[in-house]
UniProtKB/TrEMBL annotation:
SUPFAM superfamilies named in the record: EF-hand
Pfam families: EF-hand_5, EF-hand_6
Name recorded for this polypeptide: EF-hand domain-containing protein
Residue ranges occupied by any EF-hand domain in the UniProt entry: 132-167
InterPro entries membership: EF-hand-dom_pair, EF_Hand_1_Ca_BS, EF_hand_dom
Any GO molecular function: calcium ion binding
Gene3D superfamilies: EF-hand
Originating species: Solihabitans fulvus
Stretches of the chain forming a coiled coil according to its record: none
Amino acid sequence: MSTVTSDKLDKRFNTLDHDNNGWIERGDVFVTARGVLAQFGVSPDSPKAATLINNLLNVWDSLAGLLNPDVYRPISVEEFRVVVTAHTLGHSDGYTQLFQPVVLALVDIADTNGDGVIEKTEGIRLLIALGTAEADAEKAFQAIDVDQDGQLSVHELVAAFRAYFLSEDPQHRASSLLG
């Protein structure tokens, strides 16, 4: 695994380890979901919330299941690197099947006016909810806004998340996506 990939996965791990105990636990999935839902004022009982939570749990169950049939066992940073790499790098179908449904659920939540695109303010709020530092969120948004129209299409956001996980290029526009 390259240093670029390792660094990105470590950053992602740290944003998911909500209690900073060095482990990602199944409960961290719910904390992540609650943060996104709260950022956009979406009720945890809504269909949008259920879709996001179910997709996040599918990611958790799939990744944790690669390590151990007990999907409730915490995952260390080393294990996280191994399972995400095994499931995504050089295996873009793994990304599409596992992570893309989460991205689409995030788009559905962040697109507060239902126009099919993520406006700049929505995008920045989404990036912050996903763990991007507030000071870095606008720069990250601008980097992934490929056509520089001040909004993100579903295609741009899906492509950015895909590149974040699959690109080995430290200069790729999506490298700063999640901080």
